[in-house]
Amino acid sequence: MLQVENLSGGYGKEPIVRNVSFHVEKGEVLGILGPNGSGKSTLLKIISGILPKQSGKVMIAGKPSGAYSQKQFAQQVAVLPQLHAHAFSHSVKDTVALGRYPYQSGIFSSWSELDEQAVQEAMNHTGVTRYENTAIELLSGGEQQRVFVAQALAQQAPILLLDEPTNHLDIAHQQQLLDTIRNQARQKGITVISVFHDINLAALYCDRLLLLKNGEVASMGVPQDVVLESEIHHVYNARVKTQPHPEMPKPQMTLLPNLQEKVEQFCVKKADVMIQEDHVLLQSSQPLKTISSAVHNAGLGWYRTFVNRGVRADYMIDDVQRENTEYLRALGYHLTDTVAMMTAVSPEHVEVEEYEGEFGSIVVAVTAGVGNAVDVSKSWQREDIPYIGTINTWVFINGELSEEAFVQALITATEAKVKALQDEQVKDPESGTVATGTSTDSLLIASTQQGEYLPYAGPITQLGKLIGKGVYDCTVRAIHSYRLAVGEHT
Ligand SMILES: Nc1ncnc2c1ncn2[C@@H]1O[C@H](COP(=O)(O)OP(=O)(O)OP(=O)(O)O)[C@@H](O)[C@H]1O
């Protein structure tokens, strides 16, 4: 739909944009990224004919852009510039209606039903209909921005060139606007080329990204291939970490600050694990990087308070999450700073130990209710009802773990637990075979992220050895403790 070949141009003799080539298909959304002054706006200005090109080609629907008259060009390409000059006071509707000028002819107004419909639709999509009779200068920056986007949409051109369309917009309006633009691209086959400052928004909404550095293409491709830590560091000179978006297969990046603040050194000790009236508690002075399958705040996060709550064996609540949240609130725990598990085992049957290794130490705490344990290889024969009985395992690590080490720590701890059940001959009461866990086991790996860097946590690494020994020992002891409490004999 739009093809740019070896395009160069700028404001004086020296080109600002140099040798840029790309093509964009019908219905595609291309994001242009790059640091301040890299030439993003200049590139859009050259494509839209606001600035003359020095060399290269811009082809629109197979024809050189210069072959279009001004009006024909405006029927093909709608432009949202970065800065809007509005010398005359117009109402919002009149401003949006200016987008229809390529379709007006003659000295008498030829305003048609189609024009009216396009204006109404564009105002609707950008949420500015309620201001239609208000003078544009009376609106806030973000509201004005939406009016100018409406003007570009009203133009109903097959190509949209947008320079920072979300400038001044709050997050809800950013979402609404970019949803609209993306939907227009998909439903109406509109081709969109948009400059972004926000790399995450661009990665989320664009099919492909073009990264400019000093007026030249530094990289171009699908967001996964452009939003790379090394690439962003190279082009922007900023330290970042990329992560997957939680709902879409798109990369998102986070800044890694270079702060000079002194970080307080701390470590987790065995004595930090306390037995309260109805729960096991650990409160750390600093947040720990945590991954868990807890009831409250499962997944990955940073937390200071860890709760393993003992409930009665007949605890039957429809909305466990909510009831548990109320419980934590009543105890005064900060809900966003707490990870909480549940068990039918009484807190005094927790087994806690500290293990010293070459790199530092770990603390393990386990409660093991194994009355209804399950052999995972036979569980397909069972009904889907959960059974009372849970093994809750906490592993606190005084060290700095890589992401790989976090996942390996989960595996190593699970293997150690399974081995403990095997050696203790914990049986699945339904199949009669050796159990591998229970139907509701929870596991937590939490790390101070201070001290020695620990890239791996497999069974023969220093960390893996401690986890293997610690989880195995504490699980065996917790099974003994449970059996003693319920009067079960091995
Ligand atoms: N009207 C102008 N006359 C001369 N030079 C200009 C003009 N506008 C921009 N420039 C120069 O062109 C270079 C690229 O500017 P441009 O606005 O294209 O960058 P950008 O990537 O859009 O930056 P930003 O992220 O800050 O919006 C800058 O060095 C700028 O100083």
TrEMBL record:
Pfam families: ABC_tran (PF00005), CbiZ (PF01955). InterPro entries: AAA+_ATPase (IPR003593), ABC_transporter-like_ATP-bd (IPR003439), ABC_transporter-like_CS (IPR017871), AdoCbi_amidolase (IPR002808), P-loop_NTPase (IPR027417). PROSITE patterns: ABC_TRANSPORTER_1 (PS00211), ABC_TRANSPORTER_2 (PS50893). One of its GO terms (molecular function) is ATP binding. Keywords: ATP-binding, Nucleotide-binding, Translocase, Transport. Residues 2-239 form the ABC transporter domain. This is ABC transporter ATP-binding protein. It comes from Sporosarcina ureae.
